[in-house]
Amino acid sequence: MKKFTFFLIVTVSICFSSINFYGQKIGKYPTISLVSDSQLEQLVNRAANATLNKFAAKGIKPENLAVTVIDLRNPNQLKTASFRGEEKIYPASVSKMFFLVALHQWLENGKLKMSPALQRVTKDMIVDSSNEATQYIVDALTETSNGEELSGKAFEKYAFKRNAVNRYFASLNYQNIVINQKTYCEDLYGRERQFWDAGKNRNYLTTNATARLMAEIALRKAVTANRSEQMLELMKRDWESEAKDTEDQAHGFTGITLKDLGLKGTKLWSKAGWTSNARHDVAYIETPDGLKLVICIYTEKFANERDILPSVAKIVLQGIGELK
Question: Structurally, how many domains does the chain consist of?
Answer without folding.
Answer: 1
